[in-house]
Amino acid sequence: MHPLLHTKDNVACKDLMIALDQCHAKGFLWKSMGMCNDAKDQLAACLRAERFKTQKFNRAGVKDKKAQIREAWREIDENS
């Protein structure tokens, strides 16, 4: 299963997590017959979308930070 399912970062997928937990609570045979596959697939898609949002945000931050570092090095090179 996915790590860190019940964190504050996955609030958008909370309903899907609850649905999957309820499906799993129905018992082993229910899970083993594939009755929870739709809930699991929906949850995986939701978590994937949330991960992509986080990655996009992080990449933008890194891009800005690299630009600042390059600017600082450029100033150092000009003043040397």
UniProtKB/TrEMBL annotation:
Places the protein is found: Mitochondrion inner membrane
Keywords tagged on the record: Chaperone, Disulfide bond, Membrane, Mitochondrion, Mitochondrion inner membrane
Signal peptide: none
Keyword Mitochondrion: yes
One Pfam family of this chain: Cmc1
Name assigned to this protein: COX assembly mitochondrial protein
Gene Ontology CC: one annotated term: mitochondrial inner membrane
UniProt record similarity statement: Belongs to the CMC family.
Organism per entry: Podospora australis
Biological role stated in the UniProt entry: Required for mitochondrial cytochrome c oxidase (COX) assembly and respiration.
InterPro entries: Cyt_c_biogenesis_Cmc1-like
Organismal lineage: Eukaryota, Fungi, Dikarya, Ascomycota, Pezizomycotina
Transmembrane regions: none
